[in-house]
Every structure is written in structure tokens, then in C-alpha cells.
Amino acid sequence: MSDPLDTSTLEDRARQLVDKARAAGADAADAVVVRSVSQSADARLGKIEEMQRAESDDLSLRVFVGKQVASVSGNDFAAMDQIVDRALAMARVAPEDPYAGLLDAADLVDEKADLDLLDSGQPNGEALAERALETEAIMLEQAGVTNSGGASAGWGVGGMVLATSSGFSGTYLGSRFSLWATAIAGEGTGMERDYDFSSAVYEADLDAPETIGKRAAERAVARLGARKIESTKGAVVFAPRCARYLLGHLAGAINGASIARGTSFLKDRLGERVFAEGVFIHDDPERRRGLRSRPFDGEGARCGAMTLVADGVLKTWLLDGASARELGLKTNGRAMRSGSTSRPGTTNLSLAPGTESPEALVAGVERGLYVTDLIGHGVNLVTGDYSRGAAGFWIEDGELREPVAEVTIAGNLTDIFARMVPANDFKYRFGTDAPTVLVEDLTIAGR
Q1: Where would you tag: which of 75, 84, 170, 392 has the fewest CB atoms within 10 A of its CB?
Q2: Strand 335-338 and strand 341-344: pairing?
């Protein structure tokens, strides 16, 4: 790969592959080339432990013979004829899928938005190493930090080329810069660790090494002396980096594929109030310099901004072509393409801020938990049951008190969503973003 920003050859190859498939007997076909270039430098205790660079162009062909469909993936562009032959042979013996097919021409994007997703700068390994070392050095200088879990600086380019037999052809690339650090505070069995992380499309938007290093250190030191607590019921305040996972659970529950299978606890709630009044949740794939922005989805559809929840009411499912057909609906441009497979998903997902400050939310809690870290994946999207390990700070009489650890918070997402109160401290940081969130009356299990 000579220039990771040049995709002209990939566009030609994707179109050639589709044309070959049609000439060989496919009723319809699409081809995807996923480009991935990444480079990183990992530092620990003042030394570079590892430097990596990876490059790949992964090719996938999907063919349709009537309602029979098959996909083949690879990375050998010289083997196009074999890929086509194998895909057609597989499709002709595959069972029929009544919902398979390409999008209608009317659903395809006709004008691709310029989302400013590509920073042309390409830092070399030495620049990344210097940034990682600087971040760690600042972190280790902070009072209370006794060791390092490492620091890493990274850069990459990723995107896709899509060509379809219905006439669509499109390409997008996005850059990504990242920086993280993990601090360790304390000694022996009293050690605690925490981290900070920043990711941005443009290098200029990345948090500075000083910010990352100091924030990781402060978080680790603040956790020293963490204790266990007695089991109780009370309010839970989720810090933004934890609150965003609640949005991820919503995205899974309104995934069109899950709705079509009937495997979501929200399957009968479309058009109903699921959250409290005043709660708005948006998905915006056309946000400029957004971490998950894109000018078209994995099937070539326009994927404009969409309100998922308006004033607490669930307004829509996340749909790709297949799930939309199965539900008797139209795609809303949420196809996420991973090689040959397509599934609905979100892009820049966000919970709109509320009116109160995080401090005001905490001040209103008599007894509860401020969560800064979540552990495990104990969420059942069929029933809505929620149970996750957590760490953070005990709240007593409206004030943050001592750090606590080895806690489990539990409830049901139906109740959690209905009681969510967002604070006003929203920032775009991760691609799925939320402000601080208060949820009343959860089980807080300790000793």
C-alpha cells in the first residue's frame, strides 16, 4: 500500500468484481473493500515497549441468485474470478432468504455530504513514541502515582469502498488519532488503577498529553482506600464515561434485526414513552469530524440525522435493508457493513443534556453511588435485566464521600430508562456519548 489516502484503485476493483459477478450469472451483486491502516507506539516506565503498524485491504463480494445469497471474503485481488465462481456456487445451493436483496435505487444516496473526516497528516512512529512517552512522564510526576500501566499514542485511517450492481459507487475514508494512559497509585494490596483516553478525527482536536496524563493520575489516586459497602437500594449517578453504556443498551434493544426476531424487551414499545419527559436521544452520521460519521451506510443509503427518542417517546427502530423488509418498513440508513455481513447499528449516538449540573444531581441524593467504572457485561436485552460490577464513590447527604469498590448495581432497563435524568455536562468524546446521568432506586449490592 503506497498511499493509504488513495483509494482510486480500490474503486476500480470493486466495480470490476461486481461486473464479473453479473456477467457470470448473478442477478445482483455488491462488493466492499474495507481499508484499515493503523500505527501505534506503547510506552511504559520511560521506554517504548512496542511499535506496530498494520495495513489491510479486505475484499468482500455478495451475490444474489433470485432470493438465494452468498458472500465470499478475501484479500487477494488477483483472484477475482475464483471469488466470483465460489460465491455463485455457494449461492445456488443456499436456502432462499425472502428478505435478501440490494436497496432500490430510490433509497441510495445521490449526493454525498462532505463531513471533513480526513486529516491528511500522517505522523511517523517517532512522533507517536514521543507523544506516548511525554504523556506517561507527566502522569508519573503526579503526587500519589507509584507505577504505570502504560501510555499509548496511535494514528490510523479506515473506510470503505462500496459498488453495487444497481449502480451505486461510493468511497469514504476517515482518520483517527488516539492517546491513552493508565496510572497506578498506592502500594501492595492497596493499589488502584484508572485511565484516561482521547480520540479524535483531527490531530488538532486530540486532548494534550498533559491533560491525559494528569487526569489518569488524579482518577487513580482518588480511588485509594476504596472499601466495600453494605447492600442497599438507592440512587446511582453514572459519570459520562459510564452513562454512555446505557445508550449502547438502547441501541441493541432497538436494533431492527432483534425486533424482527422478537428478541428485545422493547419490541412492542414503538411510539410509547420509554424514557422520562424531556429526554432526547439522537443518532447523527453526518456530524462533521464525528468519530463515527459517514456519508452513506453499508448498503449505499443516505444515513441522515435521526431522533431515536423524542421527549421520552421511542420514535424508530435502527434499520438496514433486510430488517426493514422483514418488518414491512423502509431502511433508515443504519446498515453497518463488516465485510460480507450487514447489520443495523448506530453512528454518533448521543443523549441530549438536561438542565441541572452534575453537582446538583449529586446534591439531591441522600444515599447512593457515583459510578466511575463499570465491569462485566451482565445485560439481557431479551428481558431487560441489568447487573454490572461497578466502582466509584459513596454519596451521603448529597456529597461525594469515600471511594468504594467490588459493588454490583442491578435493576431492569425498563425502569432504568424511565428514571434517567441527564445532567448538563454533555461533550462529544467517544462516538456514543452521554452527560452525567442519575437513576433512582437501583439495587446496590456489596457485602
Answers
A1: 75
A2: antiparallel
How many angstroms separate the CA atoms of 156 and 176, rounded? Answer: 5
Asked whether 221 and 142 are in contact (CB, 8 A), the reply is yes
Give the Cα separation of 289 and 65 in Å (integer): 39
pTM, 2 dp: 0.95
Instruction: Show Cβ contacts of residue 348 under 8 Å, excluding neighbours closer than 6 positions.
Output: 283, 284, 285, 287, 290, 291, 292, 293, 428, 431, 432, 433
Interatomic CA distance for residues 415 and 175, integer angstroms: 39
What is the DSSP annotation of 97-151? -TT--PPPGGGB-SS-------------HHHHHHHHHHHHHHHHHSTTEEEEEEE
The pairing of beta strand 367-379 with beta strand 232-238: parallel
Q: Are the C-beta atoms of residues 333 and 304 closer than 8 Å to each other?
A: yes
Q: Which domains does the chain carry?
A: 8-220 (3.30.2290.10), 226-447 (no CATH)
Per-residue pLDDT tens over the stretch 340-396 = 678 999 999 999 999 999 999 999 999 999 999 999 888 999 999 999 999 999 999
- The alpha carbon torsion through 356, 360, 364, 367 (nearest 10 deg) reads 120
47-65: strand order across its sheet: 68-74, 47-65, 28-44, 145-164, 169-185, 192-200
Contact partners, residue 6, CB within 8 Å, separation at least 6: none
Could you tell me if 398 and 366 are in contact, meaning their C-beta atoms sit under 8 angstroms apart?
A: yes
Query: Could you tell me where the beta strands, DSSP code E, fall in 186-287?
Result: 192-200, 232-238, 281-283
